[in-house]
Amino acid sequence: MKKRFVRLWLVGIFSIIIAFPLISQSGDNKTSVSKTRVNLEHADKLSFNKSINEKAQVLVGDVCFRHDSSYMYCDSAYFYRETNSLEAFSNVRMEQGDTLFVFGDYLFYDGDSQIAYLRNNVRMENGQVTLFTDSLNYERVANVGYYFEGGLIVDSLNQLSSFYGRYYPSTKQSVFNDSVRLENPNFTLYSDTLEYNTESKIATILGPSVIVSDSGTIYTSKGWYNTVENLAILQTRSTVISGTKILEGDSLLYDRQTGYGEAFGNMSLQDTVRKVTLTGEYGYFNEFDDSAFATDRACFLEYSQGDTLFLHADTLRMVTIDSLERRISAYYGVRFYRTDIQGVCDSMYFNTRDSILYMYTGPVLWNANYQLYGDTIEVHLGDSAIDLAHVKEFAFAVQQVDSICFNQLKGKDLKAYFEGQAVRQIDVSGNAESIYYPMEKDSSMIGLNATQSGFLSIWLKDRKIDRLKIWPSPKCSMTPIPDLQPQDRTLKDFYWFDYLRPTDKNDIFVVKKRRQQDVPTRSKNNKFAR
Predict the structure, then answer these.
(1) What is the pLDDT of residues 104-159, one digit of tens each?
(2) The model's pTM
(3) How many angstroms separate the Cα of 178 from the Cα of each of 61, 138, 389, 445?
(4) Structurally, how many domains does the chain consist of?
(5) 415 and 500, same structural domain?
(6) Cα separation, 92 vs 465, whole angstroms
(7) Is residue 363 classed exposed, middle or buried when 0-12, 13-18 and 19+ CB atoms within 10 A define those classes?
């Protein structure tokens, strides 16, 4: 694809090069004109009739004029020898060499300026290119024909119409202004200003434009479109709409045949049906296999459940399995924020079918004053809030009571169940350990309770411990607050990672590293270390 992109840019540069003649070959060309005489080659009848035209010869029947290498034919004419000009009527035809032919109902030709003014049913033919209009001026020296009251140019593939237009037969370049319309078998392009080469079939977009097809719509104001290969390079902030997806970027590459779109700078890919958006400084998508990629400040937004999930990583990929399932993979430095949950990890996977976030390598999850971390975390998202957080292999849950007191749960497997946006129950299985601070009704601490068991369940109410169940063969101890030693206040592998926590949707882009003392040593029973 990179080779194709380079090739497209070269095509674009080529279109600029071939457009350079437009600068010198304009209607205001100042090149001196060699003044030669217009010659009458033949006519069936020649006369002077002052009642008709006192300054002209009146010519009738099979009239032919020659000026240098150009020939002009008509049924009748007025020939003004003194001013080196003529008027031609009916079945007018101009021939410039053997490649350019111009037809019309009326012609005024000025031999000194070498400009032909053709009117009514005008047709200019140049190989496979035909220009239709009712008002055409043709400058022989600059070799340009231009219309100003509406015209149409047709080649072997496209037809282009506009109110104003110019065509250069030698370079095959044309310029269109005002109400421009390019019609192709696969699409229609509407523009304010457009250049087009009838040989390369490349359209150069120079003004606000819309490209409409059965597969979608493109909005842009500057770029190139190869109408043969259906390839577009769009330079200004542009938009490609394909079905339910909207791709935007400061510059875009779009291949309509393969369904491939590539965006550079402020990329945004939105799926209006699935209600997800992918952003970054660079990205691409394929409309046929429904895959997408983003990097450099990459962000995934999911807003199907009311509250928006903002997720950032170095690299994001999206793949669609079927109409109901989309899989998102995030790599390196994952940080996400939603009002009810926040999290960090090294890599993450999200499935829109079951709405589960899979967090890998050093995952940490926060909800209000709760923190979960472990080897792997699965976050089950409900319609409007989190339903369940499942911490596997090595699991640790922390609830902050105050600046130095933390309720803690630890085990091999942990499930935290949510009601609304609050934790209502936590189940720990496998080497379950806990320390927590029981409270009096006035919220004063009784002491520190420590337990060990195979399994543990805890129920919470108003974010406080309501009930506790431990089994089988539990070991319990209570230490009064005055007797607590610093080492009594935490379980092994306790860490408080609040400084890593994303605080809002913009904070997900802020790089925050773990302190050295908060990086656990990897062991058989603790895979949380990076």
Answers:
(1) 999 999 999 999 999 999 999 999 999 999 999 999 999 999 999 999 999 999 99
(2) 0.80
(3) 40, 20, 60, 79
(4) 3
(5) yes
(6) 99
(7) buried
Element holding 206 (H helix, E strand): none
How do 151-154 and 231-234 pair as beta strands?
A: unpaired
- The number of residues in the chain equals 530
CATH number at residue 484: 2.60.450
Give the count of beta carbons closer than 10 Å to the beta carbon of residue 466. Answer: 11
- Please tell me the distance from the alpha carbon of residue 199 to that of residue 18, in angstroms, as a whole number: 11
Distance of CA 254 to the CA centre of its chain: 9
- Compute the distance between CA of residue 505 and CA of residue 368 in angstroms, rounded to an integer: 16
CA–CA gap between residue 304 and residue 320 (Å, rounded): 16
The DSSP result for 315-369, as a single string, is EEEEEEEETTEEEEEEEEEEEEE-SS-EEEEEEEEEETTTTEEEEESS-EEEETT
Strand partners, 174: 167, 196
- What residue type is assigned to position 321 of the chain? I
* CATH code assigned at 196: 2.60.450.10
Distance CA 389, CA 418 (A): 8
Cα–Cα distance measured from residue 320 to residue 227, given in angstroms and rounded to the nearest whole number: 30
Quick: pLDDT tens for 458-506: 998 887 888 989 999 899 999 999 999 999 999 999 999 999 999 999 9
Provide long-range contacts, Cβ within 8 A and 24+ apart, for 288-296.
Answer: 288/258, 288/259, 289/319, 289/320, 290/319, 290/320, 290/326, 291/317, 291/318, 291/319, 291/320, 292/317, 292/318, 293/317, 293/318, 294/267, 294/269
Which 3-state string (H, E, C) describes 66-111? EECCEEEEEEEEEEECCCCEEEEEEEEEEEECCCEEEEEEEEEEEC
Domain limit, last residue, from 133, 148, 163: 148
Whether 481 is in a domain gets the answer yes
**∠ at Cα 264 (260, 266), nearest 5°?**
115
Range of the domain at 200: 150-212
